[in-house]
Amino acid sequence: MLKLEDYIRTIPDFPQPGVTFRDLTPLLGDAYALRASIRELSAPFRDAGVDVVAGMEARGFIFGALVAWQLGAGFVPLRKPGKLPAEVEAVTYELEYGTATLEVHRDALASHRRVLLVDDVLATGGTAAASVDLVARLGAELVGCAFLVEIAALAGRARLGGQRIHAVLSL
């Protein structure tokens, strides 16, 4: 039986001292583990009527696009500043080691769209909470949030209020 956690490397003190990084590149490099992770990420949302998956830069692009394909939905990238050519909505938020900003095209998440947020890791919840905020600002309906890994000790889930949250692994 495949154990996805066997494909995740733990790197202490990266990108700075005190931060533990979960490296998913071994999982991405294994076709079977990657397929299994996408099936597990998608499964709870197969019948949720997802119109579009929004993925956070950068690893959320990989997992989000594959989940969108699995669900027969479109994909919307939530980008770092200055990467999108049309009018954007932006949100700045706190990370465990600084601040960041995400942007999305204002016309990408119309009010009639049902959105699933996908990212690789739920840690402190800053990126996910900012993404939830962007979806709400644009009037789309959030179906839920899916993460490959949740680092439960960092309590990021608490920052997402009553949102439907699915994590394949809890480390």
Features:
Rossmann fold, two-stranded antiparallel ribbon, alpha/beta, 9 strands, about 170 residues
Helices and strands in order:
Elements lengths: L8 E4 L7 E4 L1 H4 L2 H12 L9 E5 L2 H13 L2 E5 L9 E8 L2 E8 L8 E9 L3 H12 L3 E10 L14 E6 L1
Parallel strand pairs: 3-4, 3-7, 7-8, 8-9
Antiparallel strand pairs: 1-2, 5-6
Helix pairs in contact: 2-3
Instruction: Give the biggest beta sheet.
Output: 5 strands, parallel
Strand order of the largest sheet: 4-3-7-8-9
Number of domains: 1
Indicate the mean pLDDT: 95
Given the structure, what is the number of helices? 4
Overall radius of gyration: 15 Å
Low-confidence regions: none
Q: How do the SSEs run, as a string of H and E?
A: EEHHEHEEEEHEE
Q: Regarding CATH, which class?
A: Alpha Beta
Any overview of this molecule?
The chain has one domain (46-170): 3-Layer(aba) Sandwich (Rossmann fold). The protein is 24% helix and 35% strand. The strands form three sheets. Strands 4-3-7-8-9 form a five-stranded parallel sheet, with helices on both faces. Strands 1-2 form a two-stranded antiparallel sheet. A two-stranded antiparallel ribbon has the order 5-6. It has helices spanning 25-28, 31-42, 59-71, 126-137, and strands at residues 9-12, 20-23, 52-56, 74-78, 88-95, 98-105, 114-122, 141-150, 165-170. The longest helix has 13 residues, at 59-71. The protein is of the alpha/beta class. The chain is globular, with a radius of gyration of 15 Å.
